[in-house]
């Protein structure tokens, strides 16, 4: 007889973790613990306060398909998901008895049948019924979302147990876990072909009471995290929260952590193509090996810190949890507070979100002089795994400064601002000081509410002004041009490839700015997200002599390429397949603008050119390098070097752990005049340094003046 899934809610008052169920070796069936309170769900109707709902690929609620009792792991059946039913949500907000103030472990069993799943435990503020009824997330603030990991228990016929590990039921001592999501690995948004027979089964769902909560119900700051939050807590949005909810659940066995780390080390050894990255592999392996036997609380943060220390501008660490705090409403940028005594280099307010209450307390030009009572540099040193930066370390202060608004909300920090009305510099007595306590603004979220401003952010590219404003000025394909003070300005973000959108409009703007060979030129790179070589070459071909146009060459990691026949084979192959096909067929790439139909090679080779940099990576790295090496008069202005990511990014798999597997640079790069040139100029970082290090100034902020742009105009006028 086919019956619905039996969901077991097992509650005990045991002070120590115990297996809440056991596998009977005689029958192969999963059995709940003896004497445990057991609630079964033999239909899709709500039962004992636990609701379960299945959704189809249009995200509409639907009836579940049921695996037969004979094939189930326990009870009278199991849910059969995947295919046309990719998503299941279990509502855990109400339990009997109440688990508030308790430490729990949540487990379920999954059997892949052509597909698998990911599962999360999540805490949300806002209208949870709207999520349940309509999957409406716009009115909710995601407070924490952590993926379940394998427990290590499996059966001979393919059932795999997943677990949260020990974790406090309440997040921050306040919020109940709202949802468990189990999502088919097949794409939810119908961008891939779905195999309706590729499914997975879910069975043996249970929650175990492990005793009193391990994390104090307390307010905190990052500097006092260890003393206030204890060994299991982290300071999160101003309150102590379980590290497993914020950073991701930790493997229950050291052997599992070691196996996971060995997989990541193997990927680095085999696929990493960045020379600087490979030089740092020894330190990387030592750090992740230490994380295996170190504190469980530090496992995921230590892994993130190891990735960030690699110096791989294309690298990103694996993540086992999502943390998306409400918006601060400010764009903070590392700048020069030239109106304050001592002219410190600290984060400055560059822009504010309209109608955001925190932004209403500040003004453009205000300086952040302390965070949680520490200098910004001291405070940043407490958060090596939260401030994301892998590129050239010489630009770390600037790039990390752009993240302080997000991380201040992430930790619930108190910011001390200093204001000088200007236009003259202030004395100590004239400086106005005030505080913004983000923890106070976050307090309503911990009570379950959602403030209307929680998603009211302001885009931030580290500059004061643009040629024009609009909804697409931060897009990869944004490009604009105008003539100002006798100089033609070309403003771009990325160097977009064809897959990134309307490249034709970007190319037309580039041609309009450069085709006439302006005497004075400013190339203003804003959010340098990279892209493709075709766009790089579109600009460089104008600015270099037509007879001297280098090509960019990418290659996989195969050892000492100068002495290997494999490289010679790739070199010969690329000569046969010029253009983008070389990348696909030869393992290398060479782009020649003349062969790509460039309208006017060398048309701006004599233009006096100022280059403004900021957040430049990948394709923008190559562009800035090509501009720096051009024979014509060129000067680069920026806060620091580009990232130094000369290669191709590659995503790596999750290995059934976490939310994303991360990424690394899979190729090395070179810029060659011809493919016969030696590779002694092989590129592996560092980034391209500016000829003039220029930070935006506080005095300019008050006047609405872009400091980098003014420096460029001054040089062009010489």
What descriptors fit this protein?
single chain, 718 residues, alpha+beta, 7-stranded antiparallel beta sheet, 35 strands, 22% helix, globular, disordered N terminus
Describe this structure in words.
With 718 residues, this protein is an alpha+beta fold. It contains 18 helices and 35 strands. The strands form 10 sheets. Strands 4-3-7-14-9-10-18 form a 7-stranded antiparallel sheet. Strands 5, 6, 8, 11, 12, 13 and 15 form a 7-stranded antiparallel sheet that branches. It has a 6-stranded mixed sheet with strand order 24-25-26-29-31-35, sandwiched between helices. Helix 12 (503-514) runs parallel beside helix 13. Residues 1-18 and 35-43 have low confidence and may be disordered.
Q: Which secondary structure elements does this structure contain, and how are they paired or packed?
A:
Elements: E1 21-23, E2 30-32, E3 51-55, E4 61-62, E5 65-67, E6 78-82, E7 87-91, E8 102-113, E9 117-126, H1 128-134, E10 140-147, E11 149-154, E12 160-163, E13 167-168, E14 177-184, E15 199-212, H2 225-229, E16 233-236, E17 239-242, H3 243-247, H4 254-271, H5 275-279, H6 281-293, H7 299-308, E18 321-322, E19 330-336, E20 345-352, E21 367-371, H8 376-380, H9 396-401, H10 404-411, E22 414-419, E23 432-437, H11 438-446, E24 479-484, E25 487-492, H12 503-514, E26 520-525, E27 527-528, H13 533-543, E28 551-556, H14 565-576, H15 581-586, E29 608-612, E30 615-616, H16 619-628, E31 634-638, E32 649-651, E33 663-665, E34 667-672, E35 692-693, H17 698-703, H18 707-716
Parallel strand pairs: 25-26, 26-29, 27-30, 29-31, 31-35
Antiparallel strand pairs: 1-2, 3-4, 3-7, 5-6, 6-15, 7-14, 8-12, 8-13, 8-15, 9-10, 9-14, 10-18, 11-12, 16-17, 19-20, 21-22, 22-23, 24-25, 28-34, 32-33
Helix pairs in contact: 4-6, 6-7, 12-13, 13-16
């Amino acid at each position: 007889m086919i019956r619905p899934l039996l969901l077991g809610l097992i509650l005990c008052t045991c002070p120590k973790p115990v297996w809440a169920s056991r596998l009977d070796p005689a029958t192969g069936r999963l059995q709940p613990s003896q004497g445990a309170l057991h609630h079964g769900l033999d239909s899709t109707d709500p039962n004992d306060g636990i609701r379960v709902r299945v959704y189809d690929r249009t995200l509409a609620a639907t009836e579940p398909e049921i695996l037969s009792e004979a094939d189930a792991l326990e009870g009278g059946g199991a849910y059969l998901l995947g295919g046309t039913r990719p998503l299941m949500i279990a509502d855990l907000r109400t339990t009997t008895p109440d688990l508030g103030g308790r430490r729990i472990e949540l487990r379920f069993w999954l059997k892949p049948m052509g597909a698998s799943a990911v599962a999360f435990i999540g805490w949300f503020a806002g209208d949870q019924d709207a999520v349940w009824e309509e999957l409406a997330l716009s009115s909710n603030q995601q407070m924490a979302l952590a993926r379940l990991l394998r427990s290590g228990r499996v059966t001979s016929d393919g059932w795999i147990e997943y677990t949260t590990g020990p974790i406090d039921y309440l997040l921050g001592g306040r919020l109940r876990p709202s949802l468990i999501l189990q999502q088919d690995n097949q794409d939810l948004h119908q961008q891939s072909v779905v195999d309706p027979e590729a499914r997975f089964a879910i069975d043996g769902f249970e929650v175990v009471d492990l005793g009193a909560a391990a994390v104090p119900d307390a307010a905190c700051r990052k500097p006092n995290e260890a003393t206030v939050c204890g060994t299991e807590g982290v300071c999160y949005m101003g309150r102590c929260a379980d590290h497993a909810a914020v950073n991701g659940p930790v493997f229950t066995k050291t052997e599992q952590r070691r196996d996971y780390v060995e997989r990541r080390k193997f990927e680095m050894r085999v696929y990493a193509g960045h020379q600087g990255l490979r030089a740092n592999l020894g330190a990387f392996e030592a750090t992740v090996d230490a994380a295996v036997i170190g504190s469980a609380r530090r496992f995921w943060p230590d892994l993130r810190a190891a990735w960030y220390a690699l110096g791989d501008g294309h690298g990103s660490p694996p993540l086992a949890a999502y943390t998306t705090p409400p918006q601060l409403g400010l764009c903070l940028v590392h700048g020069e507070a030239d109106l304050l005594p001592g002219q410190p280099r600290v984060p400055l307010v560059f822009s504010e979100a309209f109608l955001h209450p925190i932004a209403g307390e500040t003004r453009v030009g205000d300086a952040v002089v302390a965070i949680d009572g520490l200098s910004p540099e001291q405070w940043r040193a407490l958060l090596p795994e939260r401030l994301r930066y892998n590129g050239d370390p010489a630009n770390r202060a600037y790039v990390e400064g752009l993240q302080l608004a997000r991380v201040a909300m992430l930790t619930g920090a108190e910011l001390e601002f200093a204001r000088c009305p200007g236009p003259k510099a202030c004395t100590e007595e004239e400086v106005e000081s005030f505080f913004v306590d983000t923890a106070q603004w976050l307090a309503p979220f911990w009570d379950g509410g959602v403030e209307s401003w929680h998603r009211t952010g302001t885009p931030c590219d580290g500059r004061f002004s643009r040629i024009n404003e609009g909804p697409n000025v931060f897009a990869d394909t944004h490009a604009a041009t105008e003539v100002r003070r006798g100089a033609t300005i070309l403003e771009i973000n990325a160097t977009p490839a064809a897959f990134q959108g309307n490249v034709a409009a970007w190319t037309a703007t580039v041609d309009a700015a450069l085709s006439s060979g302006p005497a004075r030129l400013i190339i203003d790179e804003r959010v340098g997200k990279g892209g493709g070589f075709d766009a790089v070459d579109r600009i460089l071909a104008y600015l270099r002599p037509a007879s001297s146009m280098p090509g960019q060459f990418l290659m996989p990691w195969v050892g000492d390429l100068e002495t290997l026949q494999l490289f010679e084979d790739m070199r010969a192959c690329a000569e046969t397949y010029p253009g983008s096909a070389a990348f696909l067929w030869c393992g290398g790439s060479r782009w020649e603008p003349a062969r790509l139909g460039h309208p006017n090679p060398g048309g701006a080779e004599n233009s006096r050119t100022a280059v403004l940099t900021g957040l430049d990576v990948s394709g923008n790295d190559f562009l800035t390098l090509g501009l720096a090496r051009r024979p014509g008069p060129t000067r680069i202005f920026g806060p620091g070097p580009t990232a130094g990511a000369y290669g191709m990014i590659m995503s790596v798999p999750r290995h059934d752990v976490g939310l994303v597997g991360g990424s690394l640079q899979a190729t090395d790069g070179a810029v060659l005049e011809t493919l016969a040139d030696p590779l002694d100029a092989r590129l592996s970082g560092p980034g391209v340094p500016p000829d003039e290090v220029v930070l935006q100034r506080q005095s300019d902020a008050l006047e609405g003046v872009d400091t980098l742009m003014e420096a460029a105009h001054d040089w062009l006028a010489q």
